[in-house]
Amino acid sequence: EPEVTQTPSHQVTQMGQEVILRCVPISNHLYFYWYRQILGQKVEFLVSFYNNEISEKSEIFDDQFSVERPDGSNFTLKIRSTKLEDSAMYFCASSGTGREDSPLHFGNGTRLTVT
Amino acid sequence: QKEVEQNSGPLSVPEGAIASLNCTYSDRVSQSFFWYRQYSGKSPELIMSIYSNGDKEDGRFTAQLNKASQYVSLLIRDSQPSDSATYLCAATNSGYALNFGKGTSLLVTP
Question: What pLDDT, on the 0 to 100 scale, is given for residue B24?
Answer without folding.
Answer: 96
